[in-house]
Each structure stands twice: as structure tokens, then as C-alpha cells.
Design goal:
Elements (H helix, E strand, L loop, with lengths): L9 H11 L2 H16 L5 H29 L7 E5 L17 H14 L3 H7 L2 H5 L1 H22 L1 H5 L1 E6 L3 H8 L5 H21 L2 E7 L6 H14 L7 E8 L2 E7 H9 L8 E4 L15 H9 L9 E3 L10 H10 L5 E2 H9 L9 E5 L4 H9 L1 H4 L2 E4 L11
Parallel strand pairs: 1-2, 1-9, 2-7, 4-8, 9-10
Antiparallel strand pairs: 3-5, 3-6, 4-5
Helix pairs in contact: 4-7, 4-10, 5-7, 7-9, 7-10, 10-13, 11-12, 13-14
Length: 400
């Protein structure tokens, strides 16, 4: 089947979102359509034939639009990239001022039914400790990011229409796939719920965490991790875990594993030429083997989803490459939970181009500006066309 580009299906996506958010309506339409097919069509064969001819005309017009758009998208200045943040970017107040957009209101109303609690209230009022919990944080960042995308759609619709690629950091990858039309919003949110609950349980089972490290070219991260594992063994910990979990930017890493291993690295940071270390406010060692118990629940729920090929390019955290097909998405979304996030590699894949070629406009949609900061370090020229679209109304002050 021919691939549609985002500008062509923008209006269609709006209609589909409204249709998908109305389960009763969708079932009713399906039932009615099924009945018509069984009965040979309620309006007779002539009616069906007429509709088929009209559909053919619409496809011909769409084909012309595709060719015209392909001509336009050759110019990088006339295209855009969407980046969706991950866990850790959340703050109390997310979503404030965005309920004036009907789509955002509808999303949060649907979220209450899928999650079983009032996510909007938690986003707006906290407390921060509850919002920071993995079980709440992942759905919250997912929702806030898509709300910010709708804000951009209302303020600068051409940015959405000209989007050619998207990427999301960890949980942000689910938002990127929904944005790209690969996943249904309600289904994706349910998968996020299952993922968050499973990862919370895995985190609670073992005292673990994540350590942000800024090093030097001579820093030996893997060697440091091996020595930290040996230290844990000396403490009686069987099968200790300490590995690089995030590749952020040159000499920027996040190391995750048992808490004792991370404490050892902080204490001996000079030995490994680490310039700066900081414990992250997360509940566990994400993207390591310690998240193994979360694999099966996520794999099972993903099997039930109707995942489609994205309308635009979406890049995977696992290898920094574009998703090729739906089975690819199924497999790598599961693998991502226990694999390092290769964000630096993703940035190179998205923005690599010949000398003198212009860069597209980049939008980070969602809470926080971490991805913009990383982009600035990875590719200064690409960052000059960067804009942050926050998950609150612009004329309202952000919470500190």
C-alpha cells in the first residue's frame, strides 16, 4: 500500500482521532458497515458503485498531492522534526492552560478511563513525589507531550504539516509513534500504563538507580562499570548490574544498576576521569537487565495492539535507526526496556547531512528542554533551528 505523508493526512488524522476516541461510535459504524456488506449494501449496488467511483477520484487527487509534496519536502528549511521527552522531565503544573484545546480535554478524559485515576489532577496539582513515581510519571509525560503537540498544531499548524520525522526518549517513543499515526492513542496509553506498572514493580524489587555522568574523551565507562560490579560482588551481591543505560552526547552517559555500584562510581569518579556525576530522581535502573520482569507484560499487551506503519519516519532508541515495519516496532519497543537508549546515535542519524546543507526546524514537544540541550551538544548547527513547545500555556509562568 502506498505510504501517505503527514501533511496529506493531517485532517484525516483529526477525524480518525475523534472516531477512535468514541468507541461506541466506532462500533456502531462497524456494525452498520458490516450489515450493509452482508445485505449487498443498503442503497443497492448502484450506491456502492457510486461511492467506489468517488473514492477513486479522491485517491487520484491524493496521488497528485503526494507528488506535489515530495517536491516541497526536498528543501530541509521547509520540513520539521519532532522530539518527545522522556521520564524525568515532568513537573507539577503540566497541562496548565492547554485544556482550552478540545483535543487535549478529550485526551485527558479518555486517560481517566484507561488509567483508572485522575491523571490531569496529578499533573496540575501534584504532589511532586507522586508525580515522580514511575507508575504515574510515564503516563503523565506521554500525555503532556501529546498535549504540547496539539498546542503546536493550534499555534503553528504548518510545523505539523511539514513534519518528516520524529523520535522520543524512552517513554517518549510511544508519544512519537502515536503522533506518527503508528499507534492508536487509547491503545498506546494502555500499553504505557502496563509498561509503567511493570517497571515500577521491577524497580521496587531491587535497590537500584541511575547516575548521570559527564566524562572526558579518555573516560573508560565500561571499565568503570566492571570495577563497580566487582565491588558489589565483594559485598555479597550476586549477579550485580552496572552498565551504560543512556548514550546522551559525546562524553555524556547515564550509568544504571545496583545502588552500591553507583555509589562506588561516585566515590571513585576521579579515578575514571569523570568530571561530574549526579544521581537521577528515578526509582530504578531503567534500560538494564534489572527491568527484565517488565518484558513479558509489555510484550503481551503489544501483541493486542493494531500497530500500523508510521506516516513519517520514527527512530528507535535501541539502534538509532528508522523503524522498518510493524513487527520491527513490536520487537524493539519490548527490547528497549532492557537496552541502552542510543540517543546520541539517533541525533546523528536524523541530522547527518552533506556540508552546506540546511537543517530542518526542530521542535521539542513536552515538558523540559533536556533534548534541546543534548541537541546543542551533539549538533550546534541543527540546534540553531530548535524551538521548545512546553506543556503549559506560554503566557503562564512555569513552576520552578
Amino acid at each position: 500500500m502506498r505510504r501517505f505523508y503527514f501533511s496529506e493526512i493531517l485532517l484525516l488524522r483529526r477525524w480518525l482521532c475523534a472516531w477512535r476516541c468514541s468507541p461506541g461510535l466506532s462500533r456502531g459504524v462497524s456494525t452498520e458497515l458490516g450489515g450493509r456488506l452482508e445485505n449487498g449494501g443498503s442503497g443497492g449496488n448502484n450506491n456502492v458503485s457510486g461511492r467506489t467511483e468517488k473514492l477513486s477520484e479522491m485517491l487520484e487527487e491524493t496521488e497528485k498531492a503526494v507528488e506535489s509534496y515530495r517536491e516541497l519536502r526536498r528543501c530541509p528549511l521547509d520540513s520539521s522534526i519532532m522530539l518527545f521527552p522522556g521520564q524525568g522531565s515532568q513537573f507539577v503544573g503540566m497541562g496548565k492552560g492547554l485544556l482550552k484545546y478540545p483535543t487535549v480535554r478529550a485526551m485527558f478524559e479518555a486517560a481517566n478511563k484507561v488509567l483508572g485515576y485522575d491523571l490531569l489532577y496529578l499533573c496540575l496539582n501534584g504532589p511532586q513525589e507522586e508525580l515522580n513515581k514511575t507508575v504515574h510519571c510515564q503516563p503523565a509525560v506521554f500525555m503532556a507531550s501529546l498535549a504540547a503537540a496539539e498546542k503546536l498544531n493550534q499555534e503553528t499548524p504548518e510545523a505539523i504539516e511539514k513534519c518528516v520525522a520524529a523520535a522520543g526518549f524512552s517513554i517518549g517513543e510511544f508519544a512519537a509513534l502515536v503522533f506518527a499515526g503508528a499507534m492508536d492513542f487509547n491503545e498506546a496509553l494502555y500499553a504505557v500504563k502496563v509498561r509503567a506498572e511493570a517497571m515500577q514493580q521491577a524497580s521496587d524489587a531491587v535497590p537500584s538507580g541511575m547516575l548521570s555522568v559527564v566524562g572526558r574523551p579518555q573516560s573508560k565507562y565500561n571499565f568503570a562499570c566492571l570495577e563497580a560490579q566487582e565491588h558489589c560482588k565483594s559485598l555479597g551481591i550476586e549477579k550485580p548490574v552496572c552498565v551504560v543505560a543512556n548514550y546522551l552526547f559525546p562524553d555524556g552517559r547515564v550509568i544504571a544498576g545496583h545502588l552500591q555500584a553507583l555509589q562506588f562510581l561516585q566515590k571513585n569518579s576521579r579515578k575514571y576521569s569523570f568530571l561530574h556525576t549526579k544521581m537521577l530522581q528515578v526509582s530504578g535502573a531503567f534500560h538494564t537487565s534489572l527491568m527484565g520482569p517488565a518484558l513479558e507484560p509489555l510484550a503481551e499487551v503489544l501483541k493486542t495492539l493494531n500497530i500500523q506503519k508510521p506516516f513519517i519516519s520514527v527512530y528507535s532508541n535501541v539502534d538509532g535507526k528508522k523503524y522498518k515495519h510493524t513487527e520491527h516496532i513490536h520487537r524493539l519497543l519490548v527490547k528497549q526496556v532492557v537496552s541502552p537508549v542510543k540517543w546520541e546515535q539517533t541525533m546523528h542519524a536524523i541530522y547527518e547531512r552533506k556540508q552546506g546543507t540546511e537543517f530542518p526546524q526542530t521542535y521539542e514537544v513536552g515538558p523540559g528542554k533536556q533534548l534541546g540541550t543534548i541537541l546543542k551538544t551533539c549538533n550546534l548547527k541543527a540546534w540553531k533551528s530548535y524551538r521548545h513547545v512546553d506543556a503549559i500555556e506560554d503566557d503562564e509562568p512555569e513552576d520552578p
